[in-house]
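Hi team,

As requested, here is the filled-out complex form for the 1-O-phosphono-alpha-D-glucopyranose run. I kept the field names the same as last time so the parser does not choke. Let me know if anything looks off before we queue the next batch.

— J.
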Amino acid sequence: MAPKVRKAVFPAAGLGTRFLPATKAQPKEMLPLVDKPLIQYGVEEAIHSGIHNIIIVTGRGKSAIEDHFDVSFELEHLLETRGKRDLLASVRGISDMIDVSYIRQKEALGLGHAVLRAKELVGPESFAVVLSDDIIDAETPCLRQLLDIHEFYGSSVLALMEVDGPEISAYGVVDADPVAHNGMGGRLFRIHNMVEKPKPGDAPSNLAIIGRYILTPEIFESIEAVPPGKGGEIQLTDAIKHLLRNRPVYGLKFEGKRYDAGDKLGFLQATVELALRRHDLGGAFREYLKSMAL
Ligand code: G1P
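And here is what came back:
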């Protein structure tokens, strides 16, 4: 069994142009889905998967993320004196549960480049990468599903999802064969090749990479080895393809529902569905939606 994965890297240095003007002066990772910032969903997924060491790759204008995961002494004091115990627990809970470090990515040169910034903090061990735009609602956290495979094979494992039609061009796409594995029901794959954002006709399959990865530490050398790819950026997909030359890489069609919160429509869908599932809001919100003459 492979050693336990202890660290998760959260690239969060992107400019968030898809959400302008909301992201002009605040990071997109801090946009609230119901009442929690996007990035907190990913951090909670890591915690619920047994990973407490969080590494956030930030850039200019991202200090709100650091403040969010820090202790807010004034706020806690105020809530305490006003007897707001539930709220106090909700603001305290997250900073208590994680050990978080930050590293800056001075220029947004791509996802691979962002992950490479975490090299020293990760060290020679396998680690997770979480893209907080991808919100995954699942009974067993998606990262935990990937970690179970990693612990068995000791290899890199990527989250996969079927995407049909031209939308496939928005993703890294894999060429892969199913692997027989107990209890996986055909959802586990051995990856042979991958392409970042192929043209619809060029996609090797309908299996898209979703923003959850477990990577072995050799990935850092691969990132250093690959030239800029799609969009002139250092692509993580290209680095994993490079890693494939010497190491097996697996893909898992995870169980759960994924929302693309990096896209306006996906963000709205996630907001509505997560709100409907909330015990404190769901009932009233459902009644409101039903009352709308759509
Ligand atoms: C990134 C990756 C891509 C992956 C996607 C998942 O792209 O480069 O391979 O399929 O995340 O959300 P982005 O959406 O950041 O352009």
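Two things worth flagging: The chain has a mean pLDDT of 93. Residues 111, 131, 134, 171-172, 196, 208-211, 236-237, 262 surround 1-O-phosphono-alpha-D-glucopyranose (CB under 6 Å).

Thanks,
J.
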